[in-house]
Amino acid sequence: MFKTLxxxxxxxxxxxxxRLLSPYPRISIEAEASTAEQALELxxxxxxxxxxxxxxxxxxxxxxxxxxxxxNCRFVFCTAFDQYALDAFELNxxxxxxxxxxxxxxxxxxxxxxxQQASGQQHSYLPEQHGILLKFGEISRIKRLNEIQRFESxxxxxxxxxxxxxxxxxxxxxxxxxxLNPQQFFxxxxxxxxxxxxxxxxxxxxxxxxxxxxxxxxxxxxxSRRQVQQLKQLFNAWG
Length: 239
Fold this sequence. Notes:
CATH class of the largest domain: Alpha Beta
Number of domains: 2
CATH architecture of the largest domain: 3-Layer(aba) Sandwich
CATH superfamily of the largest domain: Response regulator
Radius of gyration: 20 Å
Helix content: 25-40%
Structural class: alpha/beta
CATH topology of the largest domain: Rossmann fold
Low-confidence stretches: none
Largest sheet: 5 strands, parallel
Strand order of the largest sheet: 2-1-3-4-5
Shape: elongated
């Protein structure tokens, strides 16, 4: 069974999608949401295998929601607009359906879902070119992972630092860490993850046994005592 969440701000659109999905017994619709914010709350309360989501909604968009969906949950966009398709697949969407959704087109989506499961295909670490939709002021930009220098835990959210400034993900640092390749990112402390090739130099920290990692943009991030030796080893090619 695929535990499924349907997200759309239009009640009739949710009802129609549920009708189209009814012939597929393995698709178990567990919940529905009218906003991305409501969907995030539901995803914090229970795990879903599949999410169908609209893109243009009040508040957070479907693209912003998709960037925060957990690792093992697949998602499909259902929208009346075709101009977001590239952005959707950059976010690793399973599929992109245009409204009104044709039954035969939805069937291909379900086939793709089942083929992935049959082959044992699972989400792994995100590639360096994976896009994350981030908001800077009133502008939303897609930033690639190789453009991000640092992730910082702030409460239940994660701050993201890149050349455009600071943005936020509505996700914990531990969830972010699950998707990051340890060959590219290093957790310097309980609250910070930095991109390894963004580290310019390492300096002694204020507390005994700690270090400071200085990044390419000049910012300084404290390295905890327990991580100092591992960080040094990353840059020791000869053992």
